[in-house]
Amino acid sequence: MTAKIFIDGEHGTTGLLIRDLLRGRHDVEVVSIAPEKRKDLAERKRLLNAVDLAILCLPDDAAKESVAMIENTNVRIIDASTAHRIAPGWVFGFPELTAAQSELISNSKRVANPGCWSTCFIALMRPLVNAGLIPKEFAATTWGVSGYSGGGRQMVEAFETAWGTNANTKFIAYGMKLAHKHLPEMQHYSGLTHAPVFTPSVGAFRQGMLVEIPLPLWALPTPVSGADLHAALHAHYAGQRFVSVQPYTHEPPAELDPEALNDTNSLELFVFDNPKTQQAVLMARHDNLGKGAGRAAVQNMGLMLGLAI
Q1: 306 φ/ψ sector (left φ>0, alpha ψ -120 to 50, else beta)
Q2: Which tens digits make up the pLDDT trace of 188-212?
Q3: Residues 151-180 pLDDT 10s
Q4: Where are the beta strands (DSSP E) in the chain?
Q5: pLDDT tens by residue, 253-306
Q6: Are the CB atoms for 142 and 121 separated by under 8 Å?
Q7: CA-CA distance, 143 to 124, in Å (whole number)?
């Protein structure tokens, strides 16, 4: 049986990618709204209630509006916005979060797709908090750089037109109000008592992402080594298809390319440390449109509908 999918917001960056990923598949049928009816609430409501799965690629308020319009209890939902990531009744769509998460997603009708930044931070921090290597009260900080596609259509247009012609615009720091929209889920699903201090940035490349978490090992209440951190991450993600922990070594690479995993659903995790200074850095790399958005949604779609991933 072919599953019917409606991508509400299919003309945005994430929606376009999901539509492209589903094109040519024989196990799903993508249902689209006529261009002249994109702002017709009655038509959107009809389509939202006529499919097996609705994928919402919308701003938060619009996503909430779409959810409210779904009256058919058989319709499953994947929300790619931040609107429902810690909301009661919604399952967080990071299948590798715990041993039971994939099954929770499979059995759920309401799945909140993770954000690109939060996927990286949670993937690194949650297993270490669970293992007791990092206390829940740890004062975490995190920093990263993303391709400009993570900012949506307006940022894409800015980088590729006006900003793209300015040789001085190569890098933008933002989030200095320390209230980034991904912070609630970053705190909630990492298991930390307090949200991390998070100052993201955008580079002059379309997609790709690096996120790092510095760790002053000397400040932890019990002795922890880089090898301990790596072992805990390796044990947590053993056997996972899309998340891999890279080999632990005292000779780290000279550089890490944020674009290395573009056009994949892969997430790579790294541990680097200096025993002499008792410092470590955790790093994550993925495609912000891949495991950080559209490809993650397709992975969750497969789990929810029992389809190939």
Answers
A1: left
A2: 999 999 999 999 999 989 899 999 9
A3: 666 666 667 676 555 545 678 888 899 999
A4: 3-8, 28-31, 53-56, 76-79, 91-92, 110-112, 141-147, 171-173, 197-203, 209-216, 243-245, 267-274, 279-286
A5: 889 999 999 999 999 999 999 999 999 999 999 999 999 999 999 999 999 999
A6: yes
A7: 13
CB 246 within 8 A of CB 273: no
Neighbour-count burial for 150-176, b at 16+ CB within 10 Å, e otherwise: bbeeebbeebeeebeeeeeeeebeebe
Determine the Cα–Cα distance for residues 212 and 217; give it in Å rounded to an integer: 15
Per-residue pLDDT at 194? 97
Give backbone dihedrals phi and psi of 144, rounded to 5 degrees, phi first: -165, 170
**Structure pTM?**
0.95
Q: For residues 76 and 131, what is the distance between their CA atoms, to the nearest angstrom?
A: 34
The CA–CA distances, whole Å, from 81 to 106, 164, 281 equal 20, 27, 29
Distance of CA 265 to the CA centre of its chain: 10
Q: Is 278 left (phi over 0), alpha (psi -120 to 50) or beta?
A: left
- Cα 259 from chain centre: 16
Is residue 116 part of the annotated active site? The answer reads yes
The CA-based diameter of the chain, rounded to the nearest angstrom, is: 65
Tokens of residue 143, six digits: 């920093």
Residue range 119-147: mean pLDDT, rounded: 97
Domains of the chain: 3-114+293-305 (3.40.50.720), 116-288 (3.30.360.10)
Catalytic residue chosen out of the listed positions 116, 195, 271, 297: 116
